[in-house]
Amino acid sequence: MDQETKVCQNCKQEFVIEPDDFKFYEKMKVPAPTFCPECRFPRRLVWRNERSLHKRTCSLCNKSIISMFKPEVSFPVYCHECWWGDKWDSTKFGRDYDFSKTFFEQFILLQREVPRPALYASQNVNSDYCNHTAHLKDCYLVFGSAFNENCGYDASTVGSKNCWNCSFMQDCEGCLHSVDINKCYQTHFSQNCTGCTDSAFLYDCRNCQNCLFCYNLRNKTYHVFNQPVSKEDFKRIKDSVLSSRELLQKRFLEFRKTIQEKAIHRFSVGDHNSNVSGDSIYNSKNVHASFFIEGGENDKYIYKCLRGQKDTMDAFGVSGGELGYESNNVDFSSRVLFSLNGENNSSTEYLIDSFGVENCFGSISLSHKKYCILNKQYDEKTYFELREKIIAQMKELPYIDNAGRKYFYGEFFPVELSPFTYNESIAQEYVPITKNMAEELKYPWQEMTDKGYVPTKRWDEMTDTIFETNDSILKETILCEAWDKDKEKAKEHQCTMAFKIVPDELAVYKKFNLPLPRKCPNTRNFEQFKLRNPVKLWYRKCMKQGCSNEFETSYAPDRPEIVYCESCYQNEVV
Q1: What is the end-to-end Cα distance of the chain in Å, rounded?
Q2: Which of 34, 385, 429, 522 has the lowest tally of Cβ within 10 angstroms?
Q3: pLDDT value for 296
């Protein structure tokens, strides 16, 4: 088919469907979307809550547990052992399909009854307060991460050790307050760096050691503000800047301004790619409008997809699979459509929390099943006949949500059916909106509830240096600086109002002579996300004088940074 322009039924803006997109939809046997890519993205994310945790009891064994689901949700919530155990069978909740009702109306009823896992956590050790994680050891409040040890308050980190308050980090050790770093050691307050050691306040540096306030450097040692210094001067400057909270915060703001005014920004971060567009893409080919990708092939509109996802569109957090469409957190699977949370699935549609499943439709919490619809077991022949009838009905009888948006076959789950509100899901991290915007879109929004915290110390009563801090800080409940300064704004990113310092956290800050944070973990995470570029692309020209190259980039045209095309960046920086 030729290129086609449509109007998104959510934001009412025009969007384009390319000929290659139509080829993909034809291969997957799905209709073209009626939501634009920018609206499809948060619609998927609203179904993924990582950070909003609650105390409740397991609905099967009555053990006290931590869960991503609020105690008042209608469906049962099981602890890890019960959900994976053999004391229950999800097909016992199966129901006949009623052709007088829409598919999503019937799915709502099923969702109210089928047990769900309290957390998504696999093979973790002593890491109870972590969600959407696997293979963690001695970690605390770590989210969307795997293969880490003794880490805290991290998000989207892999293979790291003794790192705190970091995000989008791989194979690092002893790093604090850094984002988008790889293979770094004891590197703090830095961004977009690889192979750096014993440094702080770096941007876009490679293989640098003992450097401070530097950008665009390669293979340097003992540099401050991009200038060489003696070993003695470096230590003096580092000790004076990093030990004081007041001076550290002042220097941090100055450094961010320096990055904007002087650093050269590569139009897109990534290496070893062929025919790609987006940002943070590595070892991939034919990947477009995508972000944070490793080993992707023939993908579009996907985010945070590692370990070689192929032939996939509109996905988040999927790995090692192929032929995926409109899915979240479904790994090592093939031909999975409109699904959430699973592994090793094949030829499935509209599934949630299902593993080792083949040829199933509209079901929840299945394990190693075939030919199920609304959790009811069928024989192969009946399953395929009924599936075709349901799809035909969905094409004629859409579900209509509270804003009048229509959901035919081919649309992801409606936002209003999610057990999470917009601002408690990761949609608020990647596509932040205000309460008023949520009300206009008729997205569910959660008002902050009083958690009953009684601060015993204000943020501005904390010591300026770690040397002045003793173990008594572990007993304090600290008022968050963000909440104190602007309560309404803090509510938008789920600020917890108050927080505590835990022993492992205090130990690592003492080790590096860094002052303790004065904001709650949710605020720290939200502010780190603001350092990263948005999940959106613009066309613009290279800013190198005399260069006429054009490209797609996540730097908006009105941004102040100096943005170069690949060849100019390589000539100037590398």
Answers
A1: 43
A2: 385
A3: 96
